[in-house]
User: Fold these one by one.
Assistant:
Number 1:
Amino acid sequence: MEPSLATYLALSGILFTIGTVGVIFKRNAIGMFMCIELMLNAVNLTFVAFSRYYADVTGQLFVFMVMSVAAAEAAVGLGIIIAFFRNRSSVDVDDASILKN
Amino acid sequence: MVTTAFFFLFAGLAIACAISMVYHKNPLYSAISLVGVFISLSCIYVTLAAPFIAAVQVLIYAGAIMVLVVFVIMLLNLEEDKPLGRLKYLYAMGGVLGVVLLVQTFFIFYAVSREPKQTVKTDETVGETLSIGSAMYTEYLLPVEIVGILLLMAIVGSVILARRFAQPQLELIVDNELDMRDAQTKEESSDELQGLETPRFR
């Protein structure tokens, strides 16, 4: 007896919702970054669940790709955060308003 | 039965850690909670018979990415998250968006549960490293190469971002300016001094 596919999808949807709400509520860039990682993980869970229930290896390969993209995103995103901190000495996204007006 | 118990245990843990991540104002607590989410998700991958993905999840996410994030938090010495200053309407927007996404989630749950039971193909070899590796280097060779190039670009990009490009020149200009001003004031003051001192000596 295993949990059904719908249960995994529900868990993934709940995690994705928490990540989305977190991106909107968090004010510092690192918090938003971590919420985006959570959303990527929720999507990975659906990939693995479908891969299990259709007995197809493609889903797990795409999880691997998503992880590589997340690693690249972490390197570049944290570089941007550090560059921003160097200029403004804060990582608050409300301060990132140079392009406004 | 054991699988179901494990699934619900780790699903609860993952949701609790995710909520704690959003709730905590201190970024370090958020990072630790996110590590909890990653580890419970990797346990869920084990219940889905995907041991390779579970191991890679712990290695890459909990090992590499979160270490990077914690390093940055430590380097920047961040204080606690301030409450929303302006953009108060974001609270309402986030609440509405969260409710909509939750409703969608439950709709998906309902719709997929109502589907006539698909015959679950339990092919235990799918999650093994052998099958993933052979698919990766035969059928999906091009995407793997593209991901390699993407990682290379990320390395180059982060090195360029982390270097101080414009600032050294700016600092040089500012330093030169200050030096010139210093020299000027020194000359003036020395002139004055000479003007003052010369009569005294004579």
Number 2:
Amino acid sequence: MEQIRKRQLNKKATKQRILKRFQSRSAATYFVISLAILLVTMILSVSYGAAQINWTVIRESLMHFDVQNTQHLILYDLRFPRVLAAALIGAFLAISGVIMQGLTRNPLASPSIMGVSSGAGFMMALALAFFPHTSQFGLILWAFTGAGIGASMVFSVGLFSKRGLTPVKLALAGAAVSALLQSASTMLAMYFNVTRDISFWYAGNIAGIPASSVRLALIIAVIGFVSAGLLSRSLTLMSLGDEVAKGLGQRTGLVRVCGILIVLLLTGTAVSISGTIGFIGLIIPHITKKMIGMDYRWLIPFSAVIGAWLLVTADIAARMVNPPYETPVGALTALIGVPFFLFLARREGGGLI
Amino acid sequence: MIFKNIHYLILALIFIIILMGILSLATGHLAISPSELVETALGEGSRRNELLLFEFRLPRLFIAILAGAALGVAGTLLQGITQNELADPGILGINAGAGLSVVLYLTYVSNRETTSPLGQMMTLPFAAFLGGLLAACCIYIVAWKNGVTPIRLILVGIGVNAGFGAVLTLFQLRMNQSAFNQVTVWLSGSIWNAHWSAVISLLPWVFILIPLSLYKSRTLNLLQLGDEMATGLGINTERERIKLVAIAVALTGASVSVAGGISFLGLGAPHIARKLVGNKHQRLVPTAACIGALILLISDMIARNLFAPSELPVGLIVAFLGAPYFIYLLITTEA
């Protein structure tokens, strides 16, 4: 009997059983529906603006692009890059949030709270001040490095304190590191007289993103999405706790390093293109986990779609609040995100430090 | 506790403040030599030095001292009330609330044509006080769940801070470039309006509320023992706490209205004071006031001189020095 049981439940079988258990049957349905909603919203976003453009024109421009047609030019130069950028950045931030919360098992983990965004912002300010002619790809590298610096500063607080990085400590350390880095970048910006650029950019903004950045973001999206997809099985097992994951043959250290690299890449790219757009990485994972459960193979793509949808919608709202002026979309996501953060703070702040 | 006798310490601190004050008056983009300084003070200096000293540097010096003292005491009170060493008006979001209300007041209610400058300056602290109070109420209400735990208070404060910041950004972007820059500078904490009217508007708040906090220090000491013990010793804890929060918010508001959102000063000053004189608030409050004044004075001197002739917001300097200290506290605090 013992032997039979042992043979039945070797590591691989256990792993598969666990993964199966996590599988949610409705996940696929949710995913398809959300994808459809995302597409509709994106079309809405493309057609809405100072010049209203209807669906037939959009379809026509996709089928046979006409250089003479002003509407086609508006679409190709302004609307398509913008909506794609919004969708990609939303997806990047949401995936980063999911991975961070999965790895740290900390409900408050997210790019804007963990100092990743402000670190990237700081290095961007540095780059803008000293090397104003840095290429878009160069800026992404700067932001990537900065994201790493910010995150490692916050993590080292956890490393040095005796009881590790509890949710509350994480939020506090993130706030302090952000304050430090932001004050440094504002100093730089004021000294080099680029305040308004940087502060608009701090508020998060996806208007007027050049098509070249979007192309670059697309390439990074492919890399990021594929690697996140490859990591998703391990992440599901990691969510059971370090010991269990180790027992099931996961190399937890390796998974962690890969996860962090993906987060840095995605957040760094997002920040370098659009500035710091907060709270998407915090909210989305909580919502998607509630909806489809802990299976990261579905959770990651689903969160990406929902994150993309949220930012595309927020971008439409940013254009509608105060036309013809643009409202920074980061301020809007903060207005949605703050109540959510407060809700989490109420729930988590009980005795967790 | 290093100093048993607080009188000598306070005297020494005041002496250092005066010394640094003189240094601060003398340094700047246009330097004034010590002999010129004495001459000008006696009324025999050149026109240029007189203008520089009496119209620019001296009011600025007083504002730094008064606002620093106010923030130091406000931080002491908040840390005493929440029994949390990490409390600070800036981190809790009270600065942001006061800042929002000041910006709104300046753009929509009061305009310079109709109101006299002094009248505007005198009403500004009230606007800041109301905004700060609003923020404090928000924090308290959201954090309330069968009572308030210190840590939830701070966590909620961070959120409220971000919220007020976002609302501010929305308003700020409707302004023109110069107003935008002014607000940006001021929000990061800057002694922007160094007129005597600002000094006068700050005076009553500081000279009424700091003695009042000193008077309340016995209550603060008892609150440290925990709510039950304090109630047993005849203190209406909830009511006292609300009164003390109001004092702290008023002090913060007054300093925000003239010096902008300076974070981490209300955090650091009480800590250094506690290291020097121990936990009794009778000793803590005056020491924290002196240390707050000293820190802001020195930071302002750095802010004026680091990139002279252009000037940095002093709040950035304070945050740059204060944030690492906060992180250090975060690492070492256990509870």
Number 3:
Amino acid sequence: MTSPQMVDRHPLDDLIRADRMPHIWCPGCGIGIAMRCYAQGILDSGMEIDRHVVVSGIGCSGRVAGYMNIDSYHTTHGRAIPFATGIKLAKPELMVTVFSGDGDLAAIGGNHLIHAARRNIDIKVICINNFNFGMTGGQFGPTSPKGSLASTAPYGNPEMPFNLPYLLAAAGANYVSRWTTLHARQLKEAVLDAFRKPGFTFIEVLAPCPVGYGKSNNINDGLEEMELYRTRCQLVQDGDVRDEDLVIDMREDKPIFIGKFVDRDRPPYQPVQVQSE
Amino acid sequence: MKVFDRKPLNIDKVHIPRGNVYLIVDRCKGCELCIHFCPQQVLEVSGGMNAKGYHYPAIAPGKENACVNCEFCTLICSEFAIFTLPVNGAANDG
Amino acid sequence: MTDKRVLTGRHFMNGDEACAEGAIAAGCHFFGGYPITPSTEVAEHLARRLPEVEGVFVQMEDELASMAAILGASAAGARAMTATSGPGLSLMMENIGLGMMLEIPSVIIDVQRGSPSTGLPTMPGQSDVMQARWGSHGDYGSVAYSPWSPQEMFDLTIHCFNVADRYRLPVLLLSDEVIGHMVERVVIPPPEQGSRWQRKHPLTPPGEPFEPFRATDPGLVPPMVHAGEGYKIHYTGLTHDERGYPDMNASTHHKLVTRLVNKVRVNRDQLVLVENYDTQDADILVISFGCTARSARQAVREARQAGIRAGLLRLVSLWPFPEQQVQALSAQAKTVIVAEMNLGQVSLEVQRVTGRPVKGVFHAGGAMIPPAPILEAIRESA
């Protein structure tokens, strides 16, 4: 048995805060994969790196801001989107990405999510959906499948989760897609699509959370959840977001639909300007 | 004419890419995604352990030249630990 | 755009409008707010004026978004402001804490009304004093000013922007419904007459080693880096070290929080503002602020006419609390009276600072305290 060549530098180390590696996420967690796709997207975008800003909220996904070697803001729970709105409107030449989790964006941050989509503010949102509040120990959240177990749902989650693509499409987002951390190639392309699309873009990324979600729900580790994505995900081309099948159900007989759901060109938000006399 | 006798016209020009696998040992958390998803099954769990006690991947016996630089392990590694680079002179075609 | 920004001249305008004009004159580029009586006119006026000066006005979906948005705009380099009243200030508290922790300059106008809860939306109150000091969780230093006229709404709004930029923190303007809605003369000076305090910039260029949260002078204010300047800084609400990286342990936390508190303490002489009326030989000292100070001024005037040596110390800065001035004047007075439209918030501070009992003329809010009860209290003590 031979070894891979042992090195101490990764090709992306200029774009991440390598002095803070290894990061805090659990073995098998998908957040690092999504961060990697985002970092690669930044490089491939061809834009000056100093134009990129990342804003995050609270939660495991929110820690991404601390690991990206660009201007980064780790703000309060649920408020990354309005903070990012302020940055973008004050300095429109910046490319502002919000990188956060399902709990931060859809629970406490839900109101800001739909209003930013309604206004079609030119910010890029990457939402890691690992079906629970991971950082605080695996409580259920607005994207947890009905019936799933969680620390605050010991008898099974009584609530239906959001169909996030539907929500964002209805609110007015220009671009909505859903991928998983297994579909890393498509995810990176989606990040590039988002950079190129003016207006509000939303990428939902399904990610394993072995400690917070998997452990309570018969998914032994990150690898098993990735396998689950591999076998159950079905690609939708030009699908209808209203389809209730888009609501994620982790039971064995139900597919998980992924793909690009919304890609339109509504004009992005412009602050009011008056003609000078 | 048997179908399988036909060869692609450009077979002499096509190179199957080859890659070298690199690893930053102390970043690995033993999640085994790279091992499981490598289409060439190049990797296996090693007996070695890093500073945090995780078993990092090793090259499986006989697979030293099997890597085709598909970069999937690079894409799928959450830890920015494992990556591949093309072997000199065997760069990805087109 | 200078002629459009600074409407030099004599005007007759209400306090909220004067505040908006002060913001424009100060160079405010971004307003993110949510309507709430009695501050709505600030937003309405800025909705009309900001586009005229190529600024950005956004009506956000709630006060939480408003505070977050102004922090973001300021982080990108703009002078940013919001305006609200008591209930909205409560909603903004968490992000005010974020502004304190990230040390992002911002201005919050609080036109106080009858409180708590929904209270009296169209009537005055002065009961956000302690909320302005301690509203967000944790220890931090606060700066808050209290205007008593539309002219001061104009002047102090500009001062708030200057203080926010120089000391890198959210600054509050604690007005009230009376001052916000009253119409008085406001003189707007020409732009050359004002001074604009700048944010401290780093001396090292981007790319060289730089610690964005290391205070390099005794004022304890680190230089400010904005988004897009190429420094690749990390701002986090978690306890952080001088590099800005999360460093969650007791000793870093104590060091950081102590600096945030001391940042206001060590600079208090530049931050404290008071006005004295007949205090030099006063043996009955009245302390008041905002609209109530107008009645107190009248009461002191009448007391003097009746031969009583009363004086008024008007607090213009509520925080940092003018301890020195209160202490010095109380020492020479035999009675200290605090008149405020709340049930004793500033009075608590006066008692703390002087170490002696204080006579209170209090009202929970809803209407201005007229001069009569204050004069009555003065007479009783004479």
